[in-house]
Amino acid sequence: MKQTTEKKTSAPELLSPAGSRECFDAALASGADAVYLAGKSFGARSYAGNFERGELAECVRLAHLRGKKIYAAVNTLIGDRELSELSEYLKFLENARVDAVITQDMSVPYLVRKRGLNLRLHASTQMTIHNLAGAESAAELGFSRVVLARELSFDEIKYISENCGIETEIFVHGAMCMSYSGQCLMSSALGGRSGNRGKCAQPCRRTYKTDRGEKHVLSLKDMALISEIDKLYECGASSLKIEGRMKGPAYVAAVTSAYRRCLDEKREPTKAELDVLNRIFFRGGLSSGYFDGKTGKDMFAFDKPDNPYKRVGTKTEKLVLDEAAERERGFNIPLNARLKFRVGNAPELTLISKDGTAASVKGGYDVQPARSSPMSAERLKSQLSKTGGGIFRLEDISVDSDGRGFAPISGINALRRDALDEIQKKILENYNKNNAQNLTLPPPPPPRNVSETERGIMADVTNLEQFRAVLEFEAESGKRAALIGVPIDELWRDPKAFAAERERIMILPRAVMHKGEYEEYERRLDRLKKSGFSKLRAENISELGRGGFELYGGPRLNVTNGVSAEFLKNLTGLKAVALSPELNLAQIRGIAENIPSSVTVYGHQPLMLCENCVTRNIEPCPCGGGKHFLVDRLGKKFPIIRDGESCRSVLLNSLPTFMCDKIDEVKKAGAALLNLSFTIENAADVKRALGACFGNGFKPAEFTRLHFNKGAITNKIGN
Question: How far apart are CA 673 and CA 458, in angstroms?
Fold first, then answer.
């Protein structure tokens, strides 16, 4: 067992999950510094048990008595009809004194500002923050902490943590989604169960057919960074997060206690500790995830996506739960006690905690002279020490007595109860005082002056062939697209080929840009701007503060309500806000009638954005060209493309979304821009789809309306 070097004096916060009261108890008993949980609404794990309001408030009280923190997850996307309930729920969380709210929807910081709520905000990993610019934008929006994407390496985490100006939080253990969090629509598209609403059906854990047989090609092993304790101290993250609000108390106890020991003792885990972690939940073994900067086959559970060890009541689970229960039985808050017990005076009991917090109460009666046997100091101590197995333990009890007094046992018991109630209040008051937030979120900058939004067709292309097809269609039909979106990699490769249309070309950045890529991206942007390209799509909050360009919001910003749309538009000067593809026409209308909006009416919807190259694990790397697919059990073929020139994979829907024959309906819903997104289409496909928007009657042989009819943000969140 390797002993780590000592570089940081204090351990980062250990943050544990709780999907139920049993898990909450297990987390506290096992050494968590903080626990994250959710109420019955607005939490991105709606299939966990979650917490009624009274239970949640009680958990906050119990945690604060121990000096621990509670973070409430309010991290689903929000529909317009839920904003009133959300506002009231945020007020409840303030009153319950949660230590922070974890969120991704921009309606939350807006409502916190509007209502003047005293709530810290943590930017959820669902916001896909993966570079310094994104973390800095979160800070400007008023977030005090950012939960970084799992896909970051140690060096990237360290760089962001040291420079962003707010706290960072990283995942260190638990399940890893194949897609960047917040960028997965696979469950939503295939079955209507939106991961952005906490209802993911986990299609990534299914088998898919490839040239190498049927494998779990999208199923990643669980992350475990417990062998990287030295680097966890060094990376600068304020909080180390364990995934698992859908898992049981044995899992929470086992993982929390293992990390607690290794963090406190600054060491790597023993073989026995690793064995427990594997047995408590096993998905083909454990992986260091992206922490070492590597991707590839070693991260995948191709053949064993489920836990062969996990059985209710197994020896490992029983042992873990028994140990947690024993720790809890042994836990208490020690108090010193001072009792004044003199005839003719009301008895007075003073309790003092280790940190000096004190509370005194007097009985509602006077001590009477004893007729026969006065109450001895030892008897009084014995009676006071009977705290009934509660959270407090009275020790070092001293009695100031004249040796003549008597009081009924019920009176002594009442005095002890009242004193314990009072010291509890004082401890909570001191916790609240020491952790007083008194927050005032920075006011958003004044709305930018934005020229009138273009209206009409917006054609996004992936390559030069598709771009030329758009121009050919325009020349042949006399119809014209208002905007043409072109990937920055394509523009950079051959800027002269696009120069003639620079005034209506919108630069499309890669969906993900890590540190080195982002620096190159900014260099390219500067050159393109000098060449006359002035329009830019923002797909991540990293771009929301960028000046010098006309900004358009992209669909990866996940806008699902009018408050978020208006907040983003005013904050950043977006000329138009792209609406989430999970909305139906009625919901689109509710936003687009008031905010210039863009809606995608054609295209193979991106379902996953993956740091790992999917096809490299199953066939030759796609960087060499050619088309690549995954095939599900129903025979549906899901195309795989690259995110720009990177080796990241974008998994597309098997069928294109098609609303080109319903353009009038989408226009009546108020959409300013009708987006056609071309990815795997050839030139003829591009022309046919454009023609359909102008009424030529074309329909693909197979297509989907996706969520235009029903929507995925319509069902009530929660159970």
Answer: 6
Domain ranges in the chain are 13-176+220-329, 333-434, 456-604+656-693
Give the relative orientation of helices 377-384 and 409-434 as an angle to the nearest 10 degrees. Answer: 50
* Contact (CB, 8 A) for 71 and 98: yes
Classified as helix, coil or strand, 508 is strand
Q: Within 10 Å of residue 635's Cβ, how many Cβ atoms?
A: 8
The CA-based angle 471-472-476, given to 5 degrees, is 120
Is residue 73's pLDDT more than 80? yes
Single-letter code of the amino acid located at 411: G
Distance, CA of 613 to CA of 295 (rounded, Å): 8
Secondary structure of residue 131 in the 3-state scheme: coil
Cα(490)–Cα(645) distance, integer angstroms: 9
CA angle 558, 559, 561 (to 5 degrees): 145
What CA–CA distance (Å, rounded) separates 155 from 161? 10
Place of tokens 């008897």: 379
Query: What is the rounded CA–CA span in Å between residue 514 and residue 153?
Result: 10
Question: In this structure, are residues 125 and 150 in contact, taking their beta carbons and an 8 Å threshold?
Answer: yes
Q: How much of the chain, in percent, has pLDDT values that exceed 90?
A: 79
Only one residue has tokens 């609403």, namely: 197
Kindly provide the b/e burial profile for residues 453-465, where b requires at least 16 CB atoms within 10 angstroms of the residue's own CB.
Answer: bbeebbbbbbbee
Which pLDDT band, with edges at 50, 70 and 90, does 258 fall under?
very high
DSSP, collapsed to helix, strand or coil, labels residue 362 as strand
SS (H, E, C) 34-84: EEEECECCCCCCCCCCCECHHHHHHHHHHHHHCCCEEEEEECCCCCHHHHH
Per-residue pLDDT at 59 exceeds 90: yes
Using CA atoms, how far apart are residues 120 and 100, in angstroms rounded to an integer? 5
Structure tokens at 441: 């979120």
Note the pLDDT tens digit of each residue in 337-346.
999 999 999 9
Given a cut of 60, is residue 7 above it in pLDDT?
A: no
- What does the alpha-carbon distance between residue 488 and residue 523 come to, in Å, rounded to a whole number? 11
pTM: 0.93
Rounded to an integer, what distance in angstroms lies between the CA atom of residue 521 and that of residue 131? 12
Task: Give the pLDDT confidence of 592-624 residue by residue, as tens digits.
Answer: 999 999 999 999 999 999 999 988 776 666 564
Q: Which fold, 13-176+220-329?
A: TIM Barrel (3.20.20)
What pLDDT score does 143 carry?
Answer: 95
pLDDT over 90 at 66, yes or no: yes
Which position has the higher pLDDT, 141 or 130? Answer: 130
Q: Using one digit for the tens of pLDDT, what is the confidence trace for 234-246?
A: 999 999 999 999 9
Q: Does the domain spanning 456-604+656-693 belong to CATH 1.10.10.10?
A: no
- Predicted local confidence at residue 450, as pLDDT: 64
User: CA 221 to CA 178: how far, in whole Å?
Assistant: 10
In DSSP terms, 505 is beta-bridged to 484
For β-strands 348-353 and 333-341, DSSP reports them as antiparallel
The label of the residue with tokens 């280790």 reads: 354
Helix (H, G, I), strand (E, B) or coil at 481: coil
Q: What is the DSSP letter of 559?
A: -
